[in-house]
Amino acid sequence: MLQGAIAGLAIGGVYAIIAVSMTLMAQLVRVINFSQAAIGMFGAFVSAYLASERVPVPLAIAIGLVVGVAVSVLIGLILARWLPESSISARSAVTVASLLLLVSMSYILFGTRPMNFRAIVSGTAFEVGGVVVSQVTVLMVSLAIVVAAGSQLLLKKTKIGTQLRAISDRPIAAEMLGIPVRMLTLGVWAFSGLVVTVVIMVVAPTQTADAISLSMLVISASAAALLGAFKRLDLALVGGLLLGIIQGAAAQFSALTLIRDWIPLVLIVLFLLWNQRKEVWDEAR
Amino acid sequence: MRSKKSLMKGLVVATAAAMVLSGCASGGGSESTADGEPIVVSSVNALSGAGTFPEASEAAQAVFDEYNANGGLNGQPIEYNVFDDKGDPATASQVAREAVENGSVALVGSASAIDCEVNHAFYEDSEILSIQGTGVDPYCFTTPNISPTNTGPYVDTELSLTYGSEVLGLEKICGLLAIAGSTRDAYQGAIDTWSEATGNELVMLDDTLTYETADYTPYVVKIKEAGCDAVYGNMIEPGIVGLLNAAEAQGLDVTFLLLTSGYSEQLAQQVTFTGQGVYTAAEFTPFTDESVSGNEDWAALMDEYGIAKTAFAQGGYLAAMHFIEVLEGIDGDITRESVTEALRGMTTPIESTMTGTPWIFGDGDSHGSNTAGWPVAIMPGETTWSAVADDWIYASGTEQ
User: Fold this and answer.
1) Which residues pair with B134 in a beta bridge?
2) Which one-letter DSSP state was computed for residue B275?
3) Could you tell me which residues come within 8 angstroms of residue B158 by beta carbon, excluding any fewer than 6 positions away?
4) Confidence tier at A283 by pLDDT (50, 70, 90)
5) pLDDT in tens, A191-208
6) Fewer Cβ in 10 A, N or C end of chain A?
7) How close are the terminal C-alpha atoms of chain A, in Å?
8) How high is the ipTM of this complex?
9) Looking at chain B, which residue has its C-alpha nearest residue A5?
10) Which residues contact A216 (CB under 8 A, 6 or more apart)?
């Protein structure tokens, strides 16, 4: 069970990074980006495809990253151009459309079969008391912590962070004060596109890499982000890692294997119940 | 009026687009010198969805194209219609009806995980026979109207496990099964046959895998905790890669006993980790090892048509070749009735250098003439499958 829990940390790290990225976007550009993982999938698929066509691997990776960033920025541009003042739900709905678009684009361009990835990182990192920790686990967990802590520092301690927070609180006032709103907003999209593409590139070779299962990582990541109510980066980080650990441990019991995919949903429900525990009837509705 | 017209126009465009997208194009082939009335043949295949087997029908198509280019059957070309069941029972049932209604005299080279189970009763009602290129579900091997060219995953399970326990001397084998449809009992039957013949038991059998399983880490961890020295699994290519990747990450350094579904050049080049060796019993003569002969004609045709060399391609090729041989023995018109009669009336099996046992349709209520496998493996550090035995191994009960 302990081994299962530790093994689950790798995918937990993936959830955590996507959750942190989703929380950032929810806070800074007012969108729950459901196509987050799909953007990474698409970028990663482009590089795997290029690598299979004998493009040198470093170049293929670079192009994949550029594509991931470009797709993300493009979705950001669409939202900024046509739905700047819309509600967060309307803006988020657009990302559901882009999720479906990216999945079907990958079907058309790369076929429906899982993509063949050569692992960038693979193998065992170290072993403690018979429990194996893989290199992917180490990388994912550290990356998750770096992204979460880095974002937190950037937002709280730097001028750009202050400007970003100003944009999210009062976009029009911020623009009037001469803050480059458009640039910074797209910068957030570019950053999140880059981060998820890197993550998917690392994690895809460790599993069967088909468009749907990679894109749907966003479901578990949403559950993790919900732990921090799409507001707190630290809780999104913890939520992601915790979810991976619980899923990994649960998979070790035959009785729980088949329901381990329910765990994100169960956690979401539990969280909502906990969150509203002090609400009186009328207000909670 | 105007809007109605543009609506119509839109509909036409949408329909055309849908037809292109759904790959409506069927059959046909290279320039044929046969211009007589075509002999219609069809196949039902998993071409899209979670597990796909496209090479069988591609190989059969190549055989027929070649046959037509050489004049067909006394000037009658073979028109081959390939249908996609999308791994979905409703679609499989629908395309089988299309295949039968388009005037097919037989089904040849089908490769699908569900075709036999979904459609065997319909084929019996329609009095049409199927020479399956890749039979997967148990009904391919246990019903009167279907005779596959391949060994199938159940006999292959027995062969792979027997080789592992008896030749490699593996004592603690764990099993991982992806169960589609009603295949569970058939796998269990094969495992039981192995147990009875060798006195071995699986240490653990986890059947919660699916063909969609993406992350194999939990399974690998479970196998590690069970302390197994080998893993037997029935996954297909992408799943095998997933399993080996997870095994590498978790340091699971064991022997892998797989089925023919993983036997392809592509897989051998793709995997970076093979533990103590990745073994399978090839259902047809191994094509990746130059020391083994028997595949020359097939390999040349596959190269000519640019078809991936896999066991599925061997099965589809053989199905088409056997069909042509039976076709050429028929006196009179080629109709569904005459083809059915000829296949059912077979008393002499067709020998092939590509299988360990000869193929026959015949009169029985069930068919499964291929009961041999050739042990092959990707050894650690290698990027190709090599033959690890110099002859076939046979399932228990095979007459040799």
Assistant:
1) B111
2) T
3) B190, B191, B193, B194, B197, B395, B396
4) low
5) 999 999 999 999 888 877
6) C
7) 40
8) 0.74
9) B218
10) A37
User: How close is the nearest chain A Cα to the Cα of B20, in Å?
Assistant: 12
Q: Which of A22, A59, A13 is nearest to A193 (CA)?
A: A22
Rounded-to-integer distance, Cα B308 and Cα B302, Å: 7
CB atoms inside a 10 Å sphere around CB B36: 13
Contact between B356 and B374 under an 8 Å Cβ cutoff? The reply is yes
Q: Which 194-223 residues of chain A touch chain B by CB within 8 A?
A: 205-210, 213-214
CB atoms within 10 A of CB A54: 8
- The beta strand positions in A104-202, using DSSP E, are 124-128, 131-134
The backbone torsions φ and ψ at residue B372, rounded to the nearest 5 degrees and listed phi first, read -125, 155
Coil, helix or strand for A107?
Answer: helix
Amino acid at B101: E
pLDDT in tens, B127-161: 999 999 999 899 999 999 999 999 999 999 999 99
Question: What CA–CA distances, in Å, run from B14 to A104, A258, B19?
Answer: 17, 40, 9
Please report residues of A whose CB lies closer than 8 A to that of B250. Answer: 3, 7, 124, 132, 134
Q: What angle do CA B266, B55, B141 make, to 5 degrees?
A: 110
Tell whether A34 lies on the interface with B, counting CB pairs under 8 A.
no
Question: φ and ψ at A56, to 5 degrees?
Answer: -55, 140
Cα–Cα distance, A177 to B78 (Å, whole number) = 76
Nearest CA in chain A to B216: A207
HSE-up (13 A, CA, CB side) for residue B124: 14
DSSP B45: E
Residue B326: per-residue pLDDT: 96
Interstrand relation of B173-178 and B106-108 (parallel, antiparallel or unpaired): unpaired
Backbone angles phi, psi at B325, to 5 degrees: -60, -40
From the centroid of its chain, how far is CA B253?
29
